[in-house]
Model the fold of this input.
Amino acid sequence: QVHLVESGGGLVQAGGSLRLSCAASRSIFSINDMGWYRQPPGKQRMLVATITSGGTRNYADFTKGRFTSSRDNAKNTVYLQMNSLEPDDSGVYSCLAVSRGTFWGQGTQVTVSS
Done:
């Protein structure tokens, strides 16, 4: 019912920043819950951040204030700004939307070098 496409991943040195984007195929105005997960190599997927239609945000403890999620309903896009990146932040980052079901993007690779 909604397709999500992530972009903005890549290779960055420790201490650097990346801004991930999640573009939806339709308006996200009516999608209450959106967020980000990540899956490091050899590990299970874990929650990074969530954001509701009302702007309520939650973050995993490991972000330690380094990450900021936002949404732009006019552009049908959710963002994840990641600062002070560490090698442990490496992994595949996936966007999700919860509407009448749960929808996932294909993921974008983030690699942080030391």
In short: The longest strand covers residues 91-99.
